[in-house]
Amino acid sequence: MQITVLGAGAWGTALAAQAARHHPTLLWGRDADQVATMARERVNPRYLPDVALPASLTYGADLDAALAHAGRHGTDGLVIVATPMAGLRGMLAGIPAHLPTLWLSKGFEAGTGRLGHEIAREVAPGLRCGVLSGPSFALEVARQQPTALVAASHDETLRDAAIAALHGGSLRVYGSDDPIGVEVGGAVKNVLAIATGIADGMDLGLNARAALITRGLAEMTRLGLALGARAETFMGLSGLGDLVLTATGDLSRNRRVGLLLAQDRTLAEILATLGHVAEGVYSAHTVLDRAQQCGVDMPITAAVVAVLQGRMSPRAAVGLLMQREARNE
Ligand SMILES: NC(=O)C1=CN([C@@H]2O[C@H](COP(=O)(O)OP(=O)(O)OC[C@H]3O[C@@H](n4cnc5c(N)ncnc54)[C@H](O)[C@@H]3O)[C@@H](O)[C@H]2O)C=CC1
Ligand SMILES: O=C(CO)COP(=O)(O)O
Predict the structure, then answer these.
(1) How confident is the model at residue 76 (pLDDT cuts 50, 70, 90)?
(2) Ligand 1 pocket by C-beta < 6 Å: which residues?
(3) Active-site residue, from 69, 89, 189, 256
């Protein structure tokens, strides 16, 4: 299978390395100098330093040529979009309709509030596509540490293509026909990881973290159900799985944002030093907007939004959550 990965950040590079062990794979990046460095040194010094990339992986900065690589044998190729959510719309709009496509981006699009499958429906109707998500720090995948992912699409042939492309060795890829649930899980866990980062940064303790994860999962599930997802999806890899990973794992950029907010660093300072995208920062208020449109209560998300917008201190946000009325679980 001919595979093209669009986006040479941490996750695109890690997944391209995995794919290249089994299939002819090309990694496209928008920065020609970075691409030339990767091709020469077989390492991505900016986003995944210290990980040697397989010799079989090829590189390109020309988007048309990269897409032609995936289309070399007609419809048998696969395009994997690995940009942040902000780049997904532009990428999907340029992919030829015959090329099956997966995206890795996790979030609600800032401005429109759309999930990936909603963007695809708008800009690429007819494209066979789906999302690949689940608990997966790029560094661990790049180091070939065991990881389980979920490929979600209403199109069974697309799920099969994702599994054929990536399942094997240290990576297990499960299928799901609930792309809404898988996308809501991947988007909301980023916001909740900021919340547990704040709690841990304030030394609130392990009980507080467990409470945020559990009640956060309830928020995530409520929103997902309102948007048309199935409840059981949130007990799976992209719900509970990715939430536990991101909310507790110090490799998470979203969690790191929360830890630093708790030290009273400003968001601008934090983002200037992060060096990678933290999607929760950009989709938190969009999650809340969509929840409000559906009449869904998301108090933890609302608290994170207030802190991110500088309207409330972390301490005040915790106080507000603790003062809420008692209710049945
Ligand atoms: N890093 C990780 O462990 C994981 C990340 N993800 C998701 O994958 C997506 C990408 O994340 P990372 O690779 O970690 O980000 P990153 O911050 O490491 O790299 C982002 C890459 O995207 C490129 N980029 C940014 N905007 C772009 C645009 N408009 N068009 C084309 N390229 C653009 C940047 O140049 C950079 O190469 C995010 O949505 C993230 O939530 C999902 C699972 C794991
Ligand atoms: O999505 C991820 C792990 O599954 C990565 O999380 P962060 O973006 O918070 O690093």
Answers:
(1) confident
(2) 7-12, 29-30, 47, 82-87, 90, 104-107, 136-138, 276-277, 279
(3) 189
What backbone phi and psi angles, to 5 degrees, belong to 175? Answer: -105, 155
Question: Is the model's pLDDT at 75 over the cut of 70?
Answer: no
Q: Where are the alpha helices (DSSP H) in the chain?
A: 10-20, 32-41, 63-70, 85-93, 116-123, 138-142, 156-166, 179-201, 206-227, 242-248, 253-261, 267-274, 279-294, 299-308, 314-322
- Distance between Cα 50 and ligand 2 center (Å): 19
Does any domain span residue 57?
A: yes
> pLDDT tens digit string along 168-223?
999 999 999 999 999 999 999 999 999 999 999 999 999 999 999 999 999 999 99
Question: What's the 319 CA to ligand 1 centre distance in angstroms?
Answer: 34
Structural domain boundaries enclosing 304? 181-323
CA distances from 150 to 23, 188, 242 (A): 20, 16, 11
Residue from 132, 145, 248, 253 whose mutation best tests the ligand 2 pocket (most atoms within 8 A of CB): 253
Same domain, 132 and 7: yes
Which pLDDT does position 74 carry in this prediction?
72
For the whole prediction, is pTM greater than 0.95?
A: yes
Distance 254 CA to ligand 2 centre (A): 7
Taking residues 11-39, report their average pLDDT: 97
Whether 200 and 167 map to the same domain: the answer is no
Residues in the ligand 2 pocket, defined by CB under 6 Å? 106, 135-137, 190, 193, 242, 245-246, 252-255, 278
Q: 105 and 194: one domain? A: no
